[in-house]
Amino acid sequence: MAENERLIADIMHAQQQLQHLFAYDRSDPLFSSQLTMPQLKILLLLHRLGDTSGRELAGLLGVSLATLSGMVDRLVTNDLVTRAEDPHDRRVRRIRLSTTGTEMISRIITAGTEKQTRLLRKLTDAELRTVRDAMQAMVRAATEDAAGTEAGDPAENAARRVTDAVAAEAVESVAADVAEAVAAEMADAAAADVADEVAGAGETTAPGRAGRA
User: What confidence tens digit (pLDDT) does each residue in 160-173 have?
Assistant: First the structure.
């Protein structure tokens, strides 16, 4: 195996370890939101695209306008989106995130940041510089890749925006995870932190988490 392939394999393995260690922190806001997958896709697209027409959203999601209208109705009822007439064409209804919807999506995208910051503080200055450099390299590569992809087929770009919205909006967070994987000490620190939490929580933690499942 070539040296770069071995390094990539090592990084991906360490990242998988981190993903498992961060799984609960990152999934908790999503589970507590009680959103369905179609609703989550709508909120992510609105977060990415901003003010959008119902017809455009329906096309991106691959559903009929009537189906989308029902989904949006429920989001409006839950104060997650707003719907208003297009000022230039009253036949068009434009949809956007409400303040509540924006806050919810931000919590989902940035979930785990507090724990990640706590773990970063356990690294030495030299290790932090390694993480910073790796993160900047990943952001550069992701930016270049996104620019190349946007030049492709518009329909494929739309589908990609639906499936990759979280990663696109949280590219710095994702890159940070990969960068942390470069530093082997990061995985060790995360594992030690989880062990400390389990030991300190005792018997009270399990019922609390089970109640949110």
Answer: 554 454 444 443 44
